[in-house]
Model the fold of this input.
Amino acid sequence: MIRDPLNALIPHLKTGGRRVAMPANLDDVTTINHDRECRPADVGLDQAAIDKIWEAVTAYYRTGLHPALTLVIRRHGKIVMSRGIGKAHVGASGESLADHHLLADADTPICLFSGSKAVSAMLIHKLSEEGKLNLDDPVMKHLPAYAANSKHRTTIRQLLTHRAGIRAMPIEDVTPELMFDFDAVVKILCDYPPIDRPGRDQAYHATTAGYILGAVAMAASGETLPGLLKRIIADPLGCEHMTFGMPEDRRHEVALSLSTGPKRVPIVSDMIAHLLGGVEEGEVTAAINSADGLSAVIPAANIYATAEEACRFYQMLLDGGRWNGRQVFKPETIAAAIKPGKLMLDRSMNAPVRYTPGFMHGEKLWSLFGFNTPKAFGHLGFINILCWADPERDMSVAFLNTGKSLAPEGFLGFGNVSRMISQVIPRDGR
Done:
């Protein structure tokens, strides 16, 4: 039973557009990994706290904006929630496809979109730890062509903190397909001048910085990006699905992304198109789902992972770089990666944002991670994917969603989930 008034209200605030049909009984599309979930009391919680979080998730699902939602929460290192709701394969009009029986759960691989940035950033931090680069190196040290047009002073750190001045592609008529040509994007970004003032202006780099960071990582290491991801993160954490794109023989396991809700929402649609360099959000989901999208390497946008794996990644960061007794990253490497910068106006989002070298940071009053989350760090992924760790709550979270919608009730429902998590899990962790 939904007890929170906001949970009861959200599913009824429908602004039109495509929706996923709701089953009469949500139990028919709900998966709970009872064998993984510990007793709430084992981590200082009660069942009511878990119920409230899940009520917020099911209210969000009832909007019809998401074919699938998956959630994993660890507290004190133990899994307290490992769940999914909805179906992995849903077509453009909301109907189920051939694998309509395939329910989404915590082991379903989903594209992290911009949540990929945090994972890719840690590849750079590991190469720094290994002495193969320094965050304050000029990019041109590893990628000489990047020195063109007054970019010779731009540093790797500026790329990681969205202060490199390349918030969008500097050409007209950008198509989603351009994202699949790694070398072409790198050449364009090397050849053209920055859009903003490197080192001075802060403006979210939706995909651009990822290509340059990827080129730097390959030049500094002599390895491919898929190889680096496998060696540095996926293998040490035991993540079989954490890859750039998805191999052809495993694509049947992927939960497809879907554009839902109204096609255009005043102000919001223009803001998203601005962030994406003029590309519409519906074009992005179609491109990511394509064979070319699943074969591409897009460092800032197409790492796939399950909710369990994404949560495992953040738990490792929360534990100072350790996983299952293995030191994956040195503690000082983690500390450098999550060290917050100044709260600054972001020229892309037109809002104050605080970045670390690779992550978004929480705030005392409110942030993406809920209320009173001044030590939290994580990353948003294309509107409504959110993964984070909160040291004060000794908690790691992965909330993965396949619906991409600009509907106001979607933003409200999404924020309500992180609000509820921050509200019912106390700051008594560390």
Remarks:
- Residues 118-233 form one domain.
